[in-house]
Design brief:
Elements: H1 6-14, E1 23-24, H2 25-31, H3 38-48, E2 53-54, E3 57-58, E4 64-65, H4 82-90, E5 96-97, E6 101-102, H5 104-107
Helix pairs in contact: 1-3, 2-3
The structure holds a DNA duplex (13 and 13 nucleotides).
Length: 116
Amino acid sequence: MRDQRAFEKIWRVVARVPRGRVATYGQIARMAGLLNGARTVGWAMRALSEDRRIGGRRVPWHRVINAQGAISLRGGEDGGGAPRQAAALRREGITVLRGGRIDLGRYLWRGQRQRT
DNA sequence: CGTATGACGAGCC
DNA sequence: AGGCTCGCCATAC
């Protein structure tokens, strides 16, 4: 796969986030090889929402939140977006506080690249 | 090819 | 703590 689009790399990283755990945009970007591509990750997630799947593989986009430990989706219009992400996370056993905030210290995914 | 945009992030006030 | 601005990266037009 030459000239692989950045999105695909990002999706691949997101797909590695285990259930019941979350990752930040910046973290995903770094793992995908982008130093400061947090915004690009968001872009990839947005592009993904149209299909929600890549090559038949389901991408857990709902496990991606911002560095503040909160759901970043803008005010979901028509019930889409944030409420849906919060519901998906809770379904995995993650406690989503009011305002879509999540305790990173408790649910943040520790990628293999990150050492303790 | 230049400009605008965006599910971000860190810094400042 | 809350809000505003600038920076970064990859697409869309």
